[in-house]
Design brief:
This protein is mainly α and 209 residues long. It has eleven helices and no strands. Helix 5 (87-98) packs antiparallel against helix 8. It is globular, with a radius of gyration of 30 Å.
């Protein structure tokens, strides 16, 4: 008959306890390594997404600099979305993608998709084009070419450049990147906040001391 643990020698019991402690330590170490590895990956991803202050400041030089940079385009798109006018940048991006089409057989279906989505009278994301440009673009749909949206794209670019781009540069979507939180109150950082642009000499003067 089995007499249970009491029948085992004391040395066996001690060895079993030691083994249990070792297994527990190894499991904790494994969990710690997994967590460290996960944190390391997150830090690498975050690091790869960072943009230098010099690059961010270039976005203020021109709309072209802004939307030809991946992070700049993402920030501008988010800003337009907050204003419910993202159709402009979506149309511009679609035109850029369209001009990279290499297969002639794909031109017509892609052109029709863009036209139906952004230019047609019944477009779900209709962009603001003058009647002349709209009519010319409609005529181009008869025989689509890589340049059939060029004029419409230029008009929308100009519209964004004169309107939403200027507001973007004054919004937190840009200011929080050019003057990240904790950067202090230097000449370039005096007017910024997560929700409003504040003056260092008034509302946050205590932080500048």
């Amino acid at each position: 008959m089995c007499k249970g643990l009491a029948a085992l020698p004391a040395t066996c019991l001690k060895s079993a306890k030691d083994m249990k402690h070792r297994l527990g330590f190894l499991l904790q170490k494994s969990d710690s390594c997994d967590y460290s590895s996960s944190q390391s990956k997150k830090e690498k991803i975050s690091s790869s997404q960072r943009v230098s202050q010099e690059e961010v400041r270039k976005w203020a030089d021109s709309l072209e600099n802004l939307i030809h940079h991946e992070r700049g385009l993402a920030a501008f798109r988010a800003f337009l979305k907050s204003e419910y006018s993202e159709e402009n940048i979506e149309f511009w991006v679609s035109c850029e993608d369209y001009k990279k089409t290499k297969s002639p057989t794909k031109l017509s279906p892609k052109a029709k998709k863009i036209y139906d989505e952004f230019i047609s009278v019944q477009a779900t994301k209709e962009v603001n084009l003058d009647s002349c440009t709209r009519e010319k673009t409609s005529h181009n749909m008869l025989e689509p070419t890589l340049s059939c949206f060029d004029e419409a794209q230029r008009k929308i670019f100009t519209l964004m450049e004169k309107d939403s781009y200027r507001r973007f540069l004054k919004s937190p979507y840009y200011l929080d990147l050019v003057s990240p939180p904790g950067a202090g109150c230097g000449p370039e950082n005096c007017k910024r906040s997560h929700t409003h642009s504040l003056d260092c000499n008034s509302n946050i003067i205590s932080q500048c001391a």
